[in-house]
Every structure is written in C-alpha cells, then in structure tokens.
Amino acid sequence: MCDKGVMKTFDEIEVRRPALAQSYLALLGAQPGRPLALFAPRRVGKTFFLDHDLAPEAEEAGMLPVYADLWLHKSAPLEAMNHALEEALDDLLVPTSNGGKVAKTQVKKIGVLGASIDLGDEPHRRALPESPALRLDALVTRLAGQHKGQVLLMLDEVQTLVDAPDGVSMIATLRAVLHKRRKEVCAVFTGSSQEGLARLMNTAGAPMYQFAQIIDFPFLGDEFLRLLAEHFRKVHPGKKLGLDELREGFKKIGFKPALMRDVVKAMSAEGITDVKRGVKNYMASDHQVAIWMALLNSVDAFDQGVLVAVANGQPPLSQSTLKVLEAIPGSKPTISKVRSSIEKLKRNGILSKNAVGTTVDDPLFAEFLLRRGANKALL
Ligand SMILES: Nc1ncnc2c1ncn2[C@@H]1O[C@H](COP(=O)(O)OP(=O)(O)OP(=O)(O)O)[C@@H](O)[C@H]1O
Ligand SMILES: [Mg+2]
Question: Of 351, 354, 255, 240, whose CA–CA distance to 306 is shortest?
Fold first, then answer.
C-alpha cells in the first residue's frame, strides 16, 4: 500500500507491523491457554493491527483468525463471540466460490446453523448447544476441527466484559474454554479504556492478570512519521518536515496516526512546515472544535461542570468544586452527585483513571476545555 512508487495521497500511508504480529504469535505458542491482552489508548491503531497484521500473520502460520468486536454487542458479548465463530464456521462449511454466496444467504435465511452443517460435509453433527457458554466451547472445537488448525480468537474492546450484565461469569466461562481447548484455540484481546482495564483486572473472582498476559501495545514510531515527511516533500518539493518536530507533534496528539495524518494534510494545504504550528492550527480548526463541542454536549450541564473541574486539576470531590458547581442552574451539588457523575463520565470513556487519579481521557480534549475556560467563564 505504501509502496513509494504507488502512494498518491497522505491517506494511503500505512505502516505494517508483521514482526510485532509474529512476536505475539510466538508468545501465544509459548503459553498455551493464556491469552494476550493488548492495551493502549483510543485511536492508536489496535483494530487496524488486528486486521492488517495479526490476522494475515496468523493465517500464514496456518491458524484461522476470527474477529469479534464486543463493543458492538455490549449487552451480550458472549453471543457476539459465538456469532463471529458461527460466521467463520459457516464460511468454512459453505464455500463462497461457485455460487456459495447464494447458498450462504439461504442458510442464513432459515436461520439455523445446524442446517448449514447438515448441508455440509459432515451430515451427522448434532445441533449446537443453546447455552452460550456451552455453545462457545462447541463452536471452538468444531471450528478448529473443520479448519484442521488452531483458531485465533481476536476479541476487540474486551473491557466491555466488565460492564456487561453477568460479566464476571462470562470472564470465567471464557477463561475455562480457553484453558480447556488450548490445543484448538488461542486468543488475543484488545482494550482501550484504562478504567475498563483496571476493573477487568480486579473483577471479583476472576482476576484477569492471572489469566491473560497484559501487554502495552506499542505506538507507531518513526517509520510512520518518515512516510508522512516523504510524501510531504513529494507534494512540496524543497520543503522539509523535521523528524524531531514530527515526533514531538505525534506525542503531543497522543500518538494517533489518523489524527497526525490530518494534521500533516492540513499543513500541506497551508504549505507550512512548522509542526508545532500545524498541531496548534489543527486543534483550533472548526472541524476539531466541532468534534469536541459535540463530545462536551453529549453530557448534561452538571457533568460538564464536573468534567471542567477535573480538566482544571481540581479535586472533584472538594468543597471548592462543589462551590463552583453551585453556579449551574438547578444543580444542588452534593458529593454523591459528583461521584455518580464521575462514574458516568468514566463509563462514557470521557474520564479515566490512571496512576495519578481521575483525568480526562484525551489530553487534547482536556487542553481544549482549559483553553475554553480561559476564554470565557464556563459555568
Ligand atoms: N499502522 C497504521 N498505519 C497507518 N494508519 C494507521 C495505522 N493504524 C491505525 N491507523 C489509522 O488510525 C485510525 C485508528 O486506528 P484504529 O481504529 O485501529 O485504532 P484503535 O486503537 O482500534 O481505536 P479505538 O480505541 O477507537 O478502537 C485508523 O482508521 C487508521 O486510519
Ligand atoms: Mg479499535
């Protein structure tokens, strides 16, 4: 994709990390039954990595990668996993070549997976169990058997499990199946919420850290920045972006590749090479301000007040914060109201907890809130 001769736009710049994927596969191979949990902040490229690097490398190694986004089915993550596995089984049993697409749709229409199995090579299989837990177990076994190789289960946004009703027992089920079927399946989890991670690690009865190996997923590095600089130079012969400045800018925006690409695109449009100024301009752009205003307005006035207090580094449960919150019409602030507001903001991924305490999850958003507060009286 990012072959130098072919690349025509900034949007086509992609970094592949096959060696990183291989190192994860090697880790999985070295500890059967123990999943890897890759954690990193939002928008740094976790899903992209699963899709573009891990899945192809797993296939190369003879595995069958199966992807499930648990966030999409927040209330029923186990069903989401099962659904992904059923789809994969369906794909194996009903080939997509020679008119298979039609057959596949028909099978889905009658809505019974058992039927597709009856139509496949192994006509005497029993229907899959109804209970999601048993179904997961049966699906993994069947899928590995059919593929004649290990299944790689990629569970994206795994922190969703802690918020799901019945999350504790689901984690226990997952853990049991991954252990019992360790010859047939291995798993990689990704998660983005630090808060979710913290709770996942401590979920009663099923401490995740004994179960999964937690890994800090690495940010993109110089390779990505060099590609941006190279393309910039191609578009603006004679103009050069400094690698050190790019590094600094990339760090400033939280190592988010799509955001960095947009910053450099905007710099390219303006014809400027000062990365610091580029980042500043981008953050002040109507487009970015609209995104942050929408995020701010997604919560009510009281929550906004709490959010601003946190962004200001005020202890949210202090008397002085309560005093400030009193200015919000109809608020009647109390400690417990602030507490539940913080919980809500954490669940929304706007606030998160880290070693320092409760902070705004996105540092750029925090900066926006501060700047906005400096420009006018917020409350
Ligand atoms: N290796 C890469 N090379 C180039 N661009 C990338 C790469 N990885 C990610 N991106 C860009 O960053 C965007 C965000 O990546 P992705 O969705 O994978 O992040 P994420 O960590 O899964 O985010 P979220 O926490 O929101 O799920 C992608 O749409 C893509 O444009
Ligand atoms: Mg993602």
Answer: 351
Tokens at residue 211, please?
Answer: 């179960």
* Six-digit token string for 315: 């202890």
Span from the CA of 337 to the centroid of ligand 1 (angstroms):
36
> Chain centroid to CA 345: how far?
18
Decide: helix, strand or coil at residue 40.
coil
Residue 240 clears pLDDT 90, i.e. is over it:
yes
Task: Please check whether residue 50 is in contact with residue 67, taking contact to mean a CB–CB distance below 8 angstroms.
Answer: yes
In this predicted model, what pLDDT tens digit does every residue of 183-205 receive, in sequence order? 999 999 998 766 676 677 666 66
Backbone Cα Rg of the chain: 24
What's the rounded Cα separation, in Å, for the pair 261 and 243? 14
For ligand 1, mutation pick of 48, 223, 365 (most atoms within 8 Å of CB)? 48
Which residue is it, tokens 């790019």? 246
Query: pLDDT tens digits, residue range 140-157?
Result: 999 999 999 999 999 998
Using a pLDDT cut of 90, give the percent of the chain over it. Answer: 61
Q: What is the sign of the dihedral through the CA atoms of 338, 344, 348 and 352? A: positive
Instruction: Write out the two tokens for 246.
Output: 């790019």
Other beta carbons less than 10 A from residue 375's beta carbon: 8
* Tens digit of each residue's pLDDT (9 = 90 or more) over 303-331: 999 999 999 998 888 999 999 899 998 88
Ligand 1 pocket check for 45: Cβ under 6 Å: yes
Q: How far is the centre of ligand 1, averaged over its atoms, from the C-alpha of 274 (Å)?
A: 25
* DSSP one-letter code for 152: E
The neighbouring-strand residues paired with 156 are 69
Tokens describing residue 19: 């060696």
